[in-house]
Each structure stands twice: as C-alpha cells, then as structure tokens.
Amino acid sequence: MPPRALDARALAALAANPGCRRRALLDGAGVDKARLAEALGSPSAFGQSQFAFARGNSFEASVKADGGAELLRLLCRRLGVEPPAPADVTVPDLSAPGAAGRTARTALELRAAAGRGTWTLLDHPMLSLEVAGAAVYLEPDAVVVDPEGTVTVIEIKSFPILDGSADPSKVGAAARQSAVYVLALGAHRVRERVLLVCPKDFSNIPAADLLDVRPQLSVTRRQLGRLTRLESIAAALPADVTFDVSLPPVELTRSVESVPAAYAPECLAACELAFHCRGRARAAGEVMTLGRAVRGELGRLRTVDAVLDAAADPGPAADPAAAALRRAARLRAEALGVTV
Ligand code: SF4
C-alpha cells in the first residue's frame, strides 16, 4: 500500500506524546491509522468535518485571491512596511512530480527568491523534515519571502477571531503546527514569528497577527529529537507483525498490541487510535486514563487495583501517595459511618 504521508498537524501531535512507540512506528511507516482503527472495531471520531474542511478551503482561496494581494497587505501591515504592487510579487509555479520533486522545486524557488530582492509568494510549497530517521513531507498554506530574503510562514485557519481574540487552544495548536514548518525551513533565513490569518467575527474578512513560535520551536525540536528511532522499535517486534487492515480483528489487535503504547486522555484530540488505546488502557486499569495530573499524584501506583489495595491496607505506608490514600479512605469511612 502507498504510505500515508504525515503532515505538520500529525507531527505536532507526535511531538505532544513522544513516549508513544506505537504512534511513532505507525506514523513512521505511513500506516493509515483511521482505517486501522476502523478495522480494529474502534473507529475514531477524530478529524475535521467535511463542512469545516470546505469552509477552510474557501476562506484560504479568498485570502490568496489576486496573486496574494490581500495576504501581502496583511503581512506588510504587521511588519510595518509598505505592501508591494501586485505586479511586483512573484508567484512561482511549484508543480513537479511526486513529493520529493515538489520539495526540490520549492528549495530551488526559495533560493531564487532570496536573491531576487523583491517579494515572492510560494503557494502550498513542499518542505521536508527528517523525523525519527524518515523523511516527512510538509505543506504549509504559504510562505512569503521579502526583499531582504527573510522567509515568513503563513498559516490560514478557519476558526474566527472574535473581538480581537481567538480560542487559545486553537491558536496554540496552530502555533505548534507552524513551528514544525519553521523547523523544516531551518536551512533558510526564516522568521520565528508566523502570520496567522483567520476570519474576523464569523465574516469572510481576513484578520491577521504575527505569532511568536519560539517557545513551540524549542519544545518541538526537543521532542522530535527524543523520538525513538523507528529501527529500534521495529527491531523489538515479532517478525510476523503486520498492520494489514484486511486481517481479522483478532490478528490485527495482536499486532497492534505488540507495539508499546502510552495512552493519555490527550490522545482523544490527537490520534485516530485513541478509542482503541483507551479501551485497552481502561481494561488494564491504568490510572493514566484519569489524566497525567492524577497519574503524577499517584507516583508508583500505576493501576486502579494497586490504588484500591493501597487505600484498603490498614498498616503504615512508607509511600507518600499510599499514605495519603489511606488517610482519605479513613476520612471517607468516618464521614459515611462505615468501616474501611
Ligand atoms: S492513541 Fe494510542 S497510538 Fe495514538 S498516541 Fe495515544 S497511545 Fe499512542
């Protein structure tokens, strides 16, 4: 099967859960996790609705209309410079066969733009970044090269800016995604602030702001660097492991379960296998299903059974989490007038 390409959204999510070997391997191998989740009997509700997708596409097209005149105007206003006349903006053709061909073409045009001394708009360029030993191809909405040769990443989103502010979680996700593009442009002189363009107050009128992605850049750089190399994950697996979605669910489940996972509730918003992994984690009684904060409070107690045993043990506890649980169990029993 042709591998499913990773995108910056997936990479940002991958960096958000660097401890999950399962996701690293499946993404690195280009496995279609949505189809895999369906074949496992736990289809994901993850992803963008068709309506949101169409709305996003039409907003992006309107922002980029007329050779990107509005886009350049928004960027120049934020940079405090005079916008160029539309005729002075170069919009090169980036078409080439295959992702590798498009990446090479983009690199060529970026180099040409840096020495041109005028404005250049690259619409849907293709960039590549090495992640866990494999090349990942990334396609930002646009990048702009100014006359000094500095590259700015443009991120166009369809969530609204209401009364001058937008949903912080969505802005945060956009910043993490943009940081991946900035990393991929590392060989060029790239601005560490990206232009985020969103519709203003539910209209189709674009509003934009420069987003400082330096914090996200350092986190993403560190997390991606820590990702276990795929070869070492694959080497530890039985030789007959396969993620062929036409296999019976029992066999497929065995294969998937042979790769260690690190489920956390955040997976629900970031990974197609979340319902499958949550089901297995709940069945194993993992306290991580209750969230990272609870998991952190419980220290060495990893399962719900271990927590209940610790709470019910009448003896003194050396472990601070177990001591706190015992005290809580005693207080509860006193309040309810029952014995522990
Ligand atoms: S849902 Fe499963 S595979 Fe995906 S990141 Fe979470 S634990 Fe890993």
Automatic annotation (TrEMBL):
Name the record gives this protein: Secreted protein
